Amino acid sequence: MSFAVNKNEQLQVKIEDLTHDGAGVAKVDGYALFIQGALPGETVTVHVLKTLKKYGFAKLLEIVEPSPERVIPPCHVFPTCGGCQLQHISYEAQLKQKQKSVRDVMDRIAKLPDVPVHEVKGMDDPWRYRNKSQIPFDTEHDRVITGFYKSRTHQIVDTDICLIQTTEADELMTMLKRKIQQLGIETYNEKTNTGMLRHVIVRKARQTNQVMVVLVTRHKKFPQKQAVVELIQQEIPNVTSIMQNINTANTNVIMGNETINLYGADVIIDRIGDIEFEISARSFYQVNPQQTEVLYQQALDYAGLTGSEIVIDAYCGIGTISLFLAKQAKEVYGVEIVPQAIQDAKRNAEVNGITNTHFEAGAAEEVIPKWYAKGKQFDVLMVDPPRKGCDEKLLDTILQYKPAKVVYVSCNPGTLARDLRILEDGGYRTKEVQPVDMFPHSSHVECVCYLEYVGVTP
Ligand code: SAH
Fold first, then answer.
1. Distance from Cα 55 to the centre of ligand 1, integer Å
2. Which terminus of the chain, N or C, has less C-beta within 10 A?
3. Was domain 103-123+288-453 assigned CATH 3.40.50.150?
4. Residue 315 — left, alpha, or beta (φ > 0 → left; ψ -120 to 50 → alpha)?
5. Which residues line ligand 1 (CB under 6 A)?
6. Looking at the domain that runs over 10-65, which CATH code has it been given?
7. What is the per-residue pLDDT across 59-92, written as a single tens digit (0 to 9) for each?
């Protein structure tokens, strides 16, 4: 079969667009070519690597005319390390790009060309924002390496520095790399399921500066643990908790079921707004707490609570949004599928002296219809589903009971747009969309949308 371009051909193209994962898109007689590293507006020469029926892939050889938005990526392992996709674009342009990608799905998938998509709320300082790092270790040619996985592989790109994680995590990576070999601790080998140290997890509470370090080992018996604990204490004076997690399984899942305290407290404490959270080794917690506050504040503003409303927080995790809303609402009902998260949510409510929340473990699409069937009425329904979006059955329930306001928090604009179309067809109107940048330098974008029920016009 012949295409507009041929494999191994070298050609000059103009980049027209950027894909969700940061690749430049050129069109050659209507045939799309994806080129990693190339930016919209640039003229580049490329080498065609692969041609498929509808599109192909090419390698960037030379930038003939660079984009004014191109910057030198500050990280020396970008783009080999898969963590960031957009470091070669100025932060302002990243935000514009993310707004454009949301606009695009609102037009194309939700068919809502008139709905306002606001400018993305970004960070003043978009570096060092991640409060959690899961650092793998390996040994290569008798040398310990650590860093992050190359995109779609389990191959570590060796580095001491990651500019989106905390400085504590950097310091720990550098120190452990030198010391664990001296201490005779073997790094874990995935292929043979041998060795000892699998991952080191570093979590920092932004508001209190407390740091937790979790050493994930293959065995419970870890003879060098005292030496490692002392080294960590010396390196990181603000460490308040050191835990050992045991994962004997030959699996991609990072942590196992057993966690032992090696030093300090079992939890670190952080705050979002004025709500306190106890974070244990395995509990889920937002990784960019500063922007989480921006996101939740937006959700709260859209909910427009006056104190008399009964609110649902569907897909509530450890109850972060629920607790944030509770002070402004009469009651908040949270539902989440992971029972442990519901336990954490109840505990977090208690720690904060919040008594008007109710949490139930189960699937949102099962539990919410049950609440309605019991005759409960809700004024605002908030949803924050995983990437695949809302379950169809939940959307049916919303359309059946028609709560006046729906606030949709989404980490995937594509599924958000799909769900908005369904809600629109059922009588809701999407009033506005506010994107928030939770993950600077990555291609992800989070959105909060506000919908009102207006009824179906015949
Ligand atoms: N609102 C929370 C968490 C959002 S992440 C926060 O802001 O922190 C999405 C959550 O949905 C996850 O905790 C996941 O466990 C949960 N989940 C996934 N499928 C679900 C379902 N069918 N019903 C309820 N919760 C579900």
1. 35
2. C
3. yes
4. left
5. 284, 286, 315-317, 320-321, 335-338, 341, 363-365, 384-386, 391
6. 2.40.50.140
7. 999 999 999 999 999 999 999 998 999 999 999 9
Compute the distance from residue 378 Cα to the ligand 1 centre, in Å: 20
Closest CA to 212 of 163, 167, 279, 271: 279
pLDDT 10s digits, 308-343: 999 999 999 999 999 999 999 999 999 999 998 999
Its pTM stands at 0.93
Q: 123, 234, 219, 246: which is closest to 178 by C-alpha?
A: 234
Name the residue of 312, 316, 336, 367 whose CB sits within 8 Å of the most ligand 1 atoms, as the mutation to test its pocket. 336
Residue nearest to atom 12 of ligand 1 (CA): 317
- C-alpha 137/C-alpha 160 separation (Å) is 12
Pocket test for ligand 1, best of 293, 298, 311, 315 (most atoms within 8 A of CB): 315
The answer to whether 368 and 335 have CB atoms below 8 angstroms apart is yes
Cα 452 from Cα 435, distance rounded (Å): 18
Give 163's Cβ-side CA count (13 Å radius): 15
- Per DSSP, what are the bridge partners of residue 137? 146
Residue with tokens 């070298």: 10
d(CA 65, CA 45): 10
Q: Which overall architecture, per CATH, does domain 132-272 show?
A: Beta Barrel (2.40)
Give catalytic status of residue 449 as yes or no. Answer: no
Which residue ranges make up each domain of the chain?
A: 10-65, 103-123+288-453, 132-272
The confidence score (pLDDT) of residue 1 equals 59
